[in-house]
Amino acid sequence: EEGGDAPTLALKIYELMIEQGMRYDVDPDNGKLTPTQFDIKNNLDIPEVKAEFDHLYKYGMELIRRGMIDIDIAKETVKERLIKRTGLTPEEFDEWLGY
After folding, report:
1. Is 81 left (phi over 0), alpha (psi -120 to 50) or beta?
2. What is the rounded CA–CA span in Å between residue 63 and residue 69?
3. How far out from the chain centre does Cα 97 lie?
4. How far apart are CA 57 and CA 14, in angstroms?
5. DSSP 24
6. Among 68, 73, 78, 79, which residue has the fewest nearby CB atoms (within 10 Å)?
7. How far is residue 67 CA from its own chain's centroid?
8. How far is it, in rounded angstroms, from Cα 61 to Cα 39?
9. Is the confidence at residue 1, as pLDDT, over 90?
10. By mean pLDDT, which of 1-15, 46-60, 81-95 is the weakest?
11. Residue 10 CB contacts under 8 Å (≥ 6 apart), including other chains
């Protein structure tokens, strides 16, 4: 079957992690996911928001470092699925996270 290789699987898992983190809230008591109503762009100053983006960004960088996903694919994924949600430019995003 097409798409069953390790890099494709790693990318799909990474995309799923991003989408879960960006689109759903997790109930701390039972782990249940509910669609979030959270406005990311207007709450970038909240430490937990920054921490979530930083975690997902670092996870992607680790996948690249381990050779699990291609750097260009990872960059596009970060740009489209993380950076776009902040309303920042890639340069502003890196500065916001302290890179």
Report:
1. alpha
2. 6
3. 13
4. 10
5. E
6. 79
7. 18
8. 25
9. no
10. 1-15
11. 63, 68, 69
CA distance 42 to 54: 17
Instruction: Please report the pLDDT score of residue 31 as a whole number.
Output: 92
Q: In this structure, how many other beta carbons lie within 10 angstroms of the beta carbon of residue 24?
A: 13
Catalogue the E-assigned strands of the chain.
Answer: 24-26, 33-35
Interatomic CA distance for residues 89 and 57, integer angstroms: 15
Say how far apart CA 90 and CA 93 lie, in whole Å: 5
Question: What are the backbone angles phi and psi of residue 34, rounded to the nearest 5°?
Answer: -135, 145
* 51, burial (CB in 10 Å: exposed 0-12, middle 13-18, buried 19+): exposed
